[in-house]
Amino acid sequence: MYSYVEATTIKITVIVRKAFGGAYIAMGSKALGIDAVCALPNAQIGVMGVDSAIVMLHRKEIDAIEDDKQKEKYIREFKEEYSKKITAKDGIDQGYIDETVEPDALRQWLGNKLIVLQGRNTDSGIFKKHGNIPL
For 7, how many CA atoms within 13 A lie in the half-sphere containing its CB? Predict the structure, then answer.
């Protein structure tokens, strides 16, 4: 991961479906200095997925509900509410992604980004491509 982050090449991330937690951060988040990040409109971006969130955040409340129908209703309502908070639009608002791109426009978007980023200054003043990993 160190080499990936320190590489001086153009780095572009496209979120196709889901980007959650540390995996998203390590695989090309804006926090790593990625040059461009986009997502398809139906992508989900967040700390964790819906199923994990319900277990982590509401396990005690769910266990306390004895009626199965009430339990299902509680879970369904939470999932609907949480799903609204991890959309690509919210990813833009929170600065996780630059923009959403429709699937049929993705190839053109990628081509345009490569052209725009082609001449960017990659000179960091370091003569080696990669330094030694700090251990």
Answer: 11
